[in-house]
Here is the input.
Amino acid sequence: MIPLVIIFLSLASGYTLRRLRERGGMEDTASSRLRHVLQMVALFGCIPLAAMLSLWGLRRPEVHLLLLPFLGLAAWGWGGGLALILARLLKLNRAATGSFFCCGAFTNIGAVGSLVCLMWLGEASIALTALYRLCEEMFYFGVALPVARRFGTTGPAVFDRPLRSPLLYAVLCALALGIALNMLGVQRPQYLGTVAAALVTLSTIFFLFSIGLGLRLSRLRWYIPQSLTMCAIKFLLVPLGIVGLARIMGLQHMDDGLAMKTVAILATMPVAMNALIPPSLFRLDLDLANACWIYSTLALVLVLPLLHALLAFL
Here is the structure.
């Protein structure tokens, strides 16, 4: 499948480049700088611009689309809550519990979910994805990071201020511009739909290549039970809860099921790379977070074909 090829080829390319540089005795500074540049281009360029272009070309923005940000918040909160509950059953220590919570709450929408939606549902899903993740920055900075900090040591206070995130401003400006152009009746050139799709694919490649540059496969076998539990949260418990909530809201009857299928895909995504940030900041169990991220990403090989088959029933 094309999404799987893009995902794992991008990761493998970045990881291979890092290994080659290590064998050549090269400094890691250049790789770190490249990672930062690629991530900034994707975050502040590709993703907001793709969202704006897609919203501009959306056929008929409707009130029901306002349900999507709520469902996104519900998915992240449900995932984090489940992680805290199951961490007690696994008898994890305080630092490991904090990392486990981050893995449950942080979901890979930008790099993986948006690509899968694009490949399976088409360009119209880009706008729906942007709305689903509208409150993502506010949740991560305003809820997830402060909760994670309670399990570790004190970190930078800036993470308690979600409204100061420049990424939030970039996303809000892009969404506002796209909706304004749509509501004003300005005709979007047809080729810009292709541009929006290309930007989503490019952002995925940039993100995953940069992740591969920093990937370290250490101590993975120590965290197999925790990682399998996290896969159950990400690929079974969260999707069941969020899809059930979406059906109660009647999303299956809207846009020929497009909104429902978009929600189902985005609710069934692996741990986000951002889940590794709080453990680094607050001295939590970084190895656990790294293992959950790697195992859940590798699980896509099995999850995506099954998810594709199940979408026909939504």
